[in-house]
Amino acid sequence: MLRPELVDRDTLLVSLETRMRSLGTTVYGGGLGWIDSVIFRRVEKCFSNPSPREYARSLASRFGKNPAVFLTAADVNEYIHVSLERDEVRVEMISTIGLTHPACIGYEPAGPGEIGTINIFLATSIGLSETGLTDLFRSVSEAKAGIISTLGLSCKDLPAVGTVSDATVVASPTGSNDYAGLGTLVGSLASRAVLETVKRYMEKKTPADYLRYIGLGISTEHRKYDPTELLIERITALVKHLRGVRLLPWIGDEHFIKVLESLGTLRKGCLHETR
Predict the structure, then answer these.
(1) Does residue 95 share a domain with residue 153?
(2) In 3D, which of 89, 92, 195 has the Cα closest to residue 142?
(3) Do the beta carbons of residue 1 and residue 172 sit within 8 Å?
(4) What is the residue-level pLDDT of the chain in tens, covering all 275 positions?
(5) Domain span at residue 232?
(6) Does residue 221 sit in the same domain as residue 160?
(7) Which of 19, 69, 93, 112 has the fewest CB atoms within 10 Å around its CB?
């Protein structure tokens, strides 16, 4: 269904077998429309082109396609391609991931900056109506946000649901299916594709990377990092998230402090054992 091709070191061209109805947030080829391809283009982290749309349009013209165009600072050579199928329903997802500049719930934006970007393109074989396509977009977005939050990406003790410059596009043949939520087969496959993508990305990362993602600038370059200690850091971040967003109003600060102190004691014990 999807045919990815690295045309140069900065450009991934994904051709579709047939033109599809699409819905997305890319600056070019976004909104509701029709696409026959997708372009992932690597740009500098501090991308300063005054017209990203025109820049993306020039890429589309170069390849003579009608694409959705993703711009990313991630290495497009490290794209992730996931394909899942069950009961004659198929989904394919191609993505590039960078987890810098997290988008955190309740955190004041700092303004334009470097591009991190989780770029997701997902296509399905099942025919969807415009309503169904919108529902599929919802499923992918909910899955991404839930998985990233579970992973622990954060800023200043607030949970993240992605990065500030994420983009998503979903596509399908036209059809009459109005539903593609997580309770449907296509929605379930889409969410599993997102999960598999993040898992593959994290397989290439180190404990130092992970600690940075959860908001801790702890260097692990000069010592072995104990997995138990890593889990303690993640649980500590989760408790701080819960404390920061005040989702449990009947739990006072003193209870959060007590749990954090206990986790601190566990961490000290873990450090002692590893020395």
Answers:
(1) yes
(2) 195
(3) no
(4) 899 999 999 999 999 999 999 999 999 999 999 999 999 999 876 666 668 889 899 999 998 789 999 999 899 999 999 999 999 999 999 999 999 888 988 877 665 555 568 999 999 999 999 999 999 999 999 999 999 999 999 887 788 999 988 999 999 999 999 999 999 999 999 999 999 999 999 999 988 888 888 887 655 455 567 888 889 989 998 998 888 888 899 999 999 999 999 999 988 877 666 55
(5) 209-274
(6) no
(7) 112
Residue of 122, 126, 144, 121 lying closest to 186 (CA atoms):
126
Type of residue at 115: I
**Shared domain check, 213 and 200:** no
Among 204, 233, 256, residue at a domain's last position: 204
* 227-245 vs 253-274: helix crossing angle, rounded to 10: 170
Q: Are residues 105 and 142 in the same domain?
A: yes
- 170 with 257, same domain: the answer is no
Written as one string, the DSSP assignment of 73-142 is SS-GGG-EEEEEEETTEEEEEEEEE---SEEETTPPP--S-----EEEEEEESS-B-HHHHHHHHHHHHH
Structure tokens at 195: 């999960």
Q: What pairing do the DSSP bridges indicate for beta strands 67-72 and 31-42?
A: parallel
Task: Report if pTM > 0.85.
Answer: yes
